[in-house]
UniProtKB/TrEMBL annotation:
Keyword Iron-sulfur: no
Keywords carried by this UniProt record: ATP-binding, Nucleotide-binding
Protein name: L-seryl-tRNA(Sec) kinase
Source organism of the structure: Didymodactylos carnosus
Source organism superkingdom: Eukaryota
Record has ATP-binding as a keyword: yes
Amino acid sequence: MTHVTLVLVCGPPASLKTTLINIVQCIINKFVEQNSTLRKLCVNKIKLCIENKFMQIDSNWYFINFDKILFNIETEVINESWKQYRLLIANIIEIYIKNNLNLPPPSNELKFLIDYSSFKYAKIIYDRIYQIFYCTKNIPSNNIIIVLEDNFYYHSMRYRYYQIAQCFNTSFMSIHLQCNIHTTLERNKKRNGNVTEQSIHNIQSKYELPDIIWEKNSMIIDTTYGFHLNTIIQFFQLITNVRLKPEKMINFLFEQQQQRDESTKINQTNVIHQTDQIIRKYISTYLKEKLNTISNVQMKKVYAENVNKCRMMFLEKLRQNQIFFSNDESVNSSIFVDNVRCQFICFMNENLDCCTDNNNDR
């Protein structure tokens, strides 16, 4: 019987998440000479672990680094709809787990593929995760360990994976790397692809520590001075213990997923309705001023019709997930209103001539 363990490696930028992953990879691969820099840093720790045969775990390991999954597209993904892309990644992993546990696909699996087909970078992300799962060389094993590396600073970012563990009676654990802000900022300056200081301060201040109820299998590591051998050993001990205590299966999780899907539909309907109201209000004010500059009555009518066509085109693209708004703001907030207006104005400026040409063709 196949058993899956989900391991979340969490922490702010420059908290040594990737370093921990590299150490783990060195150990499980009986590292020899592949990474000379890392070898100098941790070869003694690795040798001790291997010589003691502490971590001879017969498992297939898969490492998913969100930065690598989003390489060269991260800025666009964040601007488009980062929350939805996070959900996409979780859903792809969920489908992989289902396939390995030989479970029948849920009724919403095809729907999932269709729903996300309109996301600009969905195929790139899917292909990159597919490469990890199906092109990684592994020995035959009934034990699968999936390690996810990202900041995961909100409970909600981690809870989705806990739900997956509940759904399939698999194991779940989270590792949280913490470091003082001064050291983090100094490390960040020396990294390739460093992030802004503001982003680091933001994540540090908002970071939510493990929930004692559902994140009971967690470990907090202070990485200010790097890693100690005991820390690495505790990491593998926790994995060993967690594998013996899978999350209790919740049979009605698929029903909960259907309820979430329905809630998403309702929310999308509300967003479209509210967006339409905001645009109508803007158009009303805009046309009052614009039409005063047009003397010909027929041209006034045509111009107003074209602006309204832009409104309908904009809403249709919103329905087709080709236009996105941030999920962080309420549809009633001033930020949301400003965002809608700004996007519609840009859209109208780009498409108004197109609508005019269509009218002329008639």
